[in-house]
């Protein structure tokens, strides 16, 4: 296996990419304009670059507020998915076309919502990871691979703004302008490293993945939740989180703009009995109006009234092995297997110049280490990993090193 591609030499300054080569197209915001885009892209050739802009931190949910596409022969299109929420016709026009996306796991969910789903995919971020690039954001990848620099100052703006400012639209158009060239260069690099088949397997798995299921107990993702140990206080976190989520959804704002996670945790730890006590909790204060205080106090009161048997468990329910920190006590042999497996996977990933988590998902390593197959040989371990969702290239590489690690742990 050859080394990963090097960055462009430091003395070679990247060329700023400032203007779309075909000019800035108008935003598509009605059925007639959308129909014209569909026909243009149906008649284009080669892969289609696809990107989406969300309003994370501003609006509720992760819906797209701008969708950008570019294809040879069709040019660039900027589509307002709020004005044109049904893009199934465009999806059908691209049914047999390879999509080039950067960080597909971020963009595909919001594209699903408007009826778009790739049949064939090339993810330039994942390609960069497999090729061993240390920085895989679109800006660094474009500089290191193509010698071009993209301005990224508009990446975190409120894309729900209407009308969208022209500098933001120019930024969005330039993002898809580089994707196909980046794809071609990364494909050549992956082929040079002998990893192109690995990438194709990963891309196929991404394209075939179903829409993510709703999270179980999403309130448990509240930051700083580890500070809350008592079950009734956890119930207070849950009740306040659900109240905040309802308010955010009704207002169509980011939940963090309604109330910070830290304030929820602080209130759950304090369990205030009245408005003055709640105002004294960090994260609340005189700017919180009486109606809002009443909502949070009502949530805390609901937590107080929950019967002991109905309180949420101290830890989230899960269907996998116990937390690794508990393995040494519960099953020392399994703990030894996991320790050896992690070291073996890390070493193997370093030899192949890619992150360990892209070589094999850490959760799969934990699961097969906790409950290994009866025959702990490379074939059986590889089959166990495949049953858990690993790709063929991963099992071929990882199966033998895990088998060796398990043998050493049992010795």
From TrEMBL:
InterPro entries: 3'-5'_exonuclease_dom, Exo_C, HRDC-like_sf, HRDC_dom, HRDC_dom_sf, RNase_D-like, RNaseH-like_sf, RNaseH_sf. PROSITE patterns: HRDC (PS50967). GO terms for molecular function: 3'-5' exonuclease activity; nucleic acid binding; nucleotide binding; ribonuclease D activity. It comes from the Bacteria. Keywords: Hydrolase. GO terms for biological process: nucleobase-containing compound metabolic process. Residues 1-22 are annotated as: Disordered. Residues 230-310 form the HRDC domain. It is an enzyme of class 3 (hydrolase). SUPFAM superfamilies: HRDC-like, Ribonuclease H-like. Its EC number is 3.1.13.5. PANTHER family: RIBONUCLEASE D. This is Putative ribonuclease D.
